[in-house]
Amino acid sequence: MSADVLSQNEIDALLSAISTGEMTAEDLKKEEEEKKVKVYDFKRALRFSKDQVRSLTRIYENFARLLTTHFSAQLRTYVDITVASADQIPYEEYIRSVPSMTILNVIEVPPLEGRMIMEVHPTIAYAMVDRVLGGQGSSINKIDSLTEIELRLMTNLFEHTLEHLQDAWSGIAEIEPTMSELEVNPQFLQVMSPNETVVVISMNATVGETSGMINICIPHVLLEPIIPKLSAHYWMETVSKNRKPTEVAILEKKVKNANVQLTAQLGTSKLSIEDFLSLDHGDVIELNTRIDEPLIIKIGEIPKFTGQPGKVNKKLAVQILNNFKEGDEENDW
Predict the structure, then answer these.
(1) Which long-range contacts (CB under 8 A, 24 or more apart) does 46-50 make?
(2) Contact of 68 with 81, CB cutoff 8 Å
(3) pTM score, whole prediction
(4) Which domain, by its residues, includes 20?
(5) For the Flagellar motor switch protein FliN-like C-terminal domain, which residue ranges apply (predicted)?
(6) If DSSP codes are grouped into helix, strand and coil, which group holds residue 161?
(7) 290: exposed, middle or buried (C-beta count within 10 Å: 0-12, 13-18, 19+)?
(8) Is the peptide bond before 194 cis (omega within 30 degrees of 0)?
(9) In the prediction, which pLDDT does 7 show?
């Protein structure tokens, strides 16, 4: 059982108050009992532990980095997206905090049940559309009615972010996100019951000189099947089993498939410029390598192996004998 540790000054003040009659032992006991009582609001039940909220925050920090890279390439302007906060609140409270007119992307994430909401502030959404149409990335305060063209452009913009959402979630669950609808009025959304607990991930977004918020609303019913995976213990186990992130694994695969130049060096020789210019067909150049010495095999310009020449299927070949070690050759490279 944990207890607050009092300083020496606080102990002296308490003893002084008891000795002078300002406070009795009964008053002190009553005050201790009052401190143990905590107010709990059953309408706002906390169904996620701090550890689980932190795990969700890590997922969306990765998502924010992927979005920053994606939109920077798509819009060809300065883009910065970072996670600002993560809170769990009732869905009803979240809906009341949403502006009356905004961009609400409703996302289904099978095989998980339920739907999540990606709310994008209109200033950010219009700045993105302006860049797509060749503008400077300026925003306008018009959201009451989207034209068919604006609706199509915004749908395309945010549909292309779903593959990055899938990548961000890959360490916890294999999901296949799809955009089910795009809405502008939160009152028309019937995604979950008002008392449902949701986690709201708030992200600060900057596109060019325009700033705004992107909020992700995730209901408890969607996360319920994978809640055990949101613990720090599971997260650390996953990291230890798969120490190399997806990006590193892809990079390694690309590097392994890259072509490199391999050269078997028969030997070297030094000639004067005069002798070099006078070379003719049939001349013989003496190399500084003995016929029974191994050849130097280079990768690019770097000596890596020693080998011996031969033939395979009537073609010249070289057999690797050993790794090249510094000092195996007298010549300087």
Answers:
(1) 46/88, 46/197, 47/88, 47/197, 47/220, 48/88, 48/197, 48/199, 48/220, 48/223, 48/227, 48/230
(2) yes
(3) 0.58
(4) 13-39
(5) 254-321
(6) coil
(7) exposed
(8) no
(9) 62
Closest to 192 (Cα-Cα) out of 226, 227, 221, 224: 221
DSSP 195: T
What is the number of other CB atoms lying within 10 angstroms of the CB of residue 291?
Answer: 7
Claim to verify: residue 123 and residue 268 sit in the same structural domain? no
Give tens-digit pLDDT for 53-98: 888 999 999 999 999 999 998 888 899 999 999 998 888 888 888 8
CA dihedral 141, 147, 153, 154 (to 10 degrees): 50
Question: Alpha carbon of 289 to those of 267, 268, 307, 318: distances in Å?
Answer: 5, 7, 13, 16
Residue for token digits 């992130």? 245
* Same domain as 221, residue 89: yes
Structure tokens at 130: 């302006």
Considering only CA atoms, which of 185, 188, 180, 179 is closest in space to residue 161? Answer: 179
Total Cβ atoms within 10 A of residue 177: 21
Q: Distance between CA atoms of 144 and 128, rounded to whole angstroms?
A: 18
Q: What is the DSSP string of 71-123?
A: HHHHH-S-EEEEEEEEEEEEHHHHHHHS-SS-EEEEEE-TTS-SEEEEEE-HH
130 and 278 housed in the same domain: no
Is 186 inside any structural domain?
Answer: yes
- Convert the pLDDT of each residue in 26-48 to its tens digit: 665 665 555 555 565 555 556 77
Q: Beta strand pairing status for 210-219 and 103-108?
A: unpaired
Q: How many CB atoms lie within 10 A of CB 73?
A: 9
